[in-house]
Amino acid sequence: MLKNVNFKYLLLGRTMSNLGDSIYYIALSWYIMQVTDSGLWLGVFNFAIFIPNALSFLIGPYIDKYNKRMLLIICEWGQLLPILALTLIVFNGIENPYIICVIVATASFFGMNTYTIQDAFIPKLVSKKDLAHAQMRRCTCLFRIMQLIMFSMP
C-alpha cells in the first residue's frame, strides 16, 4: 500500500501537519504564559484552539459536496496564513492575547477540517481490500514518528 504514491504523500503531509500543529500549540501556549502570566489566558487560548471542533459537524456536508482536493488546498492555506501572521506578530513584539486567540481560532478552524477532508480522500486512493490497513496507517503515522524520535535520542 505504501507503493501508492498519492497515499504516501497524503500520509506524509498529515504527519508533517500533525508535527507542526503540536509544535506551534506548545510554543504559543508558552508564549501566552510569558506574555500574560495568567492561567486564565492560557485557558482562553486553548478554548480558541478547540472551539472550532464543536462546529465541525456543520462542515461535513460541504466536504461531501465539493471538490475535496480544492477544499484541502483551501484549508491548508487557511491554516498557513494565520500561522504566518502569528509568527510576524510574535517576532514584532505585539503582545495582545486577544489578537492571538482570534488568529489561533481561525487557523484551528481550517486545520481541523483538513483531517476530515484527508479521511474522505483515503477510499479514493486505496483499494477496498487495503482500506482498513490504510486507516490504521493514517491513525498511527505521527505516533510512530514520535517513537522514532524518542528512541533515537541519547
Report on this model:
It is a single chain. The protein is an all-alpha fold. It contains 6 helices and no strands. The longest helix has 32 residues. The chain is elongated, with a radius of gyration of 17 Å. The model has no long low-confidence stretch (mean pLDDT 82).
Low-pLDDT regions:
none
- Biggest sheet character: none
Whole-number average pLDDT?
82
Strand % is under 5%
Shape: elongated
Give a quick summary of the entry:
The protein is mainly alpha-helical and 154 residues long.
What's the structural blueprint in terms of helices and strands?
Blueprint lengths: L4 H32 L2 H16 L5 H6 L2 H24 L5 H29 L5 H22 L2
Keywords:
154 residues, mainly alpha, 6 helices
